[in-house]
Structures
1.
Amino acid sequence: MEFTLIKAWTEDSIALVQLHRPEALNALNPEMFEELLTALEAYDADAAIRCMILTGTGRAFSAGADIKQMAGMSAVDQMASPAPARWERLRRLKKPIVAAVNGFALGGGCELMMCCDIVVAAETARVGQPEINIGIIPGAGGTQRLTRVVGKCKAMELILTGRQVTAAEAEALGLVNRVVAPELVLDEARRIAREIAAKSPIAVRAAKECILKAQETSLAVGLDFERRMFALLFATEDKVEGMQAFLEKREPKFKGS
């Protein structure tokens, strides 16, 4: 795959995608978002890939939407925008995505980060939803996902003030899994991705679907979904291999079948 606004490559069973508009702090214009989805969906469909990493070039993971493009849009333009469908395509990805947040993750960049499944942040990273500062609100899930992670009071504070938080505060709020030195952020993301890639890809996908279901439904619906997914995994060869390897005290060799 060849792109102009992102970089994409593989390392064994790991796929890496890097937003590459450093002159615009990796602002998410439609062209970049389409390239991003094209790469992620291709890797999601590739049986050889078991985990994906998303990061940015330069000083930012992504500083948000491209305000220059948004400035001239009307309410009618927004209602007709294909952007919601793009975000929905991102949500439907089955394989886990590890975000390596190398710098600013603001506005749409923060929403993109929250769409990932595990987040590693550089100590110098800054996270926030500053849309209120330009007279709008988060429009790609920020009010919903942030509230589900940090709770109503903190979400109110961060969204209504537009305040950016440090990587350490983001970790304390549960937005970030771990914080490392800037030069180590991609290495740590790789380490986590490789650890996930060593597991059964069928079980990993099932676990991700169950966890997302917990965010989107009631406890009763989530428990029913989990029970069905749990039972279905007993029909896989990976279940047989995993349990046999455990009994034989050896490392399992999962095939994704």
2.
Amino acid sequence: MASMEALFTTLKTLRLQGSIFSRAQLQAPWGVHTLGSERAIFHVVTQGQAWLRPKGQAPIPLQTGDLAVMMQGQEHIISDAQAGPARHITRFQAPVGDDGLPCLSNNADGEQTALLCGTLTFDPGAAPFIARHLPGVLHAASGSTAPWLDTSLRMLAEDVGGQTQGSAGQAIAGRLAEVLFIQVLRRMAAQDSPPPWLQALSDPQIGRALALLHQSPQNAWTAQTLAARAGMSRSSFFQRFQALLGETPTAYLTRWRMTVACGAMQDPGAGLFEVAQAVGYASEAAFSRAFKREMGQPPSQWRAALG
């Protein structure tokens, strides 16, 4: 499985935050259309079954215990059937429960499905990194779940269902949503054909090197020093790294440094020279050149766009 240490380090830097925005208790037939969001959207099926129908992609069957994440917040339909009509989410009844969350409902009398729906947000500068290394839709099927997922889903359902109320309940639900995402990535890494980035994190030697890069981007890492820390020859390390990730260690390190820098620049008190040093550049000018090559604009312009 993917290194928990490496995943925690990575997602902490990307400033992962989770939240729950609604529950749903729907009787067949039903179909909910969501136009999409700038945030990643996830659905957990806590009872029954559903079909997730991302725009432009094949429908994905979901069973009780399944969790699906649309990393780019894609427009989608979630419904009881593989095809058929759907109403926009705003056209459903959504009374607010004791937990402070709206609960979507309808007037049908068929088989019931219960859902928890939420969002995941990341640092503004993390989008290119995430889009490069993770597929647009992540799906953890109930058939591959371990006790951690069953327990987390149960806790999530109970807390959002009103056992823990108010802001405290929302905080707990948000943390559980974050933990679910981390664990889903770990489970996907254990599948037969995991995404290359998760496969690399799971590799005992390449994963060790990635953890070092993620933890200390300011270090002057080279393929030689990383190979030595991974217990490999330089040539073997370079070949395996590139085979798994499709780029050189230097290119990956540069991309990660820019991602970390974007997070640091959200602090209005952080000067560009300070940010440059934090990600391994000796001067503001060298950092600015690298940032513009990677991100398409100077760091000052990127920062100003944050508002």
3.
Amino acid sequence: MNSCRWEEGLAHLGEEVPEFLDSLLSDGTRNVLYIAGAGFDPRSSQLPSIVAKNGVSRRGIFIREERPNPDYELVRRGDDNAEVLGRLYPTSDVISVHIFDEEHAVVGGQSVCLKIRDCLSDSQLNEFTDVIVDISALSIGVSFPIVGLLFEKLDQQDRINLHVVAAASPQSGQFAEIAEFAERYQHPKGFKGDRSEADDTVRLWLPQLTSAKKRAFSNLYKELEPREVCPIFPFPCHEPRQVEQLLEDFSGELTDEWGVDLHQMLFAAEHDPLDLYRTIARVHVTRKDVYDRAGRLSATVLSPIGSKAQAIGALMAALEFDLPVAYVEARRFVPSQEPCSGELDSTRLVHVWLLGEVYPLHRSGASNDT
């Protein structure tokens, strides 16, 4: 089997991330474009402040995700975070993106791509040495299309580096709760996968389980109608009993509804995106080879609605293998009822170097076969 594109990918975890960013940006030659969310999440400014304190030449593009009937307190927090980001990045654009249109259709991904194109021409993009997309405070429906757009523009060159970063706090530390989901599942813009999928395609679903969004998984399963389900559990993980808790919370779905046995459960490190990327790549490539030999069509569908770190791993697999991504958009958030200390944990920072100078074998579409 050919080696996967990021089999030897470069990533940094925890306190390695600020050390790496300091090292990368301190030589005085870098010009950074930083793209991030400017919402209610206090993680909005955690990583941007690490980049800004280096004094590097920089420009910011900050996304305000607008949903119907927003909670006043969350709007106020978003305003405060946008003000902080504006001070950190004096040269910046704040883009308001409506996630739903007047007909309640999900349009956030399409809208954000159009607006980024409007405020960032190709000639302006070429002025930067490094583009950093921070998904900490962005939804899947917005962050995946942004990375997909930049990946398409910057692939097959080695002059501009593309990085993806996240402050990947555990689910138990959420700062807001989803009060309402959309009625139907969605594909982020650019992540529908193979358009030629036929009615007899054998569909494998890889959901990244999280108790906080349990309602979304029932909607996804009913609409996707997968033939096989291999749920992904975070292990190793920060909470020693997290796998046990997920097995308890999803006991009915796993055994009665999805028909999952022990051999179909996948495990990937909670805070290491490359671990999940390699797991998905191995499952997809092996399974596709088997079905191809049998003359059958197969598809692997990802639902990366667990941790931010694992979402990056799923994003990488989707980019490389053109895999469909299915999720259920949040229609409305409310402040969390759980107490929050307000302290952000630097041990759960994540950085992945997606494209650029550290991958010479991919500069001109060269093969990385072994």
4.
Amino acid sequence: MLYLIGLGLSEHGLSLDAVRSIEKCDKVYLENYTVDFPYDITDLGIDESIINLARGDVESDKLINEAKQENVALLVYGAPLFATTHITLLMDARKANVKTRIVQAASVFDAIGETGLQLYKFGKISSMPTWDKGYNPDFMEYVKQNKSIEAHTLLLVDIGLPIDKAIEQLDKCAKDKNVELDKIVLCRKLGTKKSTIFYGTLDQLKKQKVKSPFCFVVPGELHFMEQEALTSFEVKE
């Protein structure tokens, strides 16, 4: 059987269901290439040996082939099916007649409610990759679409991208797409004891000392209760 197990957002995010599922497994793998963990993996308190898995192995038939013979777990930060890669893995396993079990956990989208923004008012989620020479993909189109329906945008930031570079890319992409950015939300290590939220202009946010993992929220039309909630996170000059 193949277990896809969500770790939640902090070292204490493992559910009892997750712990018991891990105990049943012969092999326990960790997908750690899509996020900078905000804690040390040893803090999870899992007795079983955890094997780090590269992207190529997750996207190959490795896990499916092993799960035909034994119980295999893939541990995923946050929710187990937030990434399309894991949904594809689940579908491929079912096509191969491999039994699967999903153990759910909180995702960054759950934790974004800490901002006071109403979750049902969010639109499409966008991702900000690291730009390089000749590689400057557009991540602002979803923001533009969401703004057209007055919806908020959760903007996930690529692993390893520093805050100053992320804001530089955000500013340039917004100008290229003629998207006006007033005040936006910067969230750091949501769901942990070090969770921090900032609300301000790009110039104000670039002065904050923030390390990965972090994400942005570009607000759409704000309800007065949302505006009041964000006020408590405003960056002071």
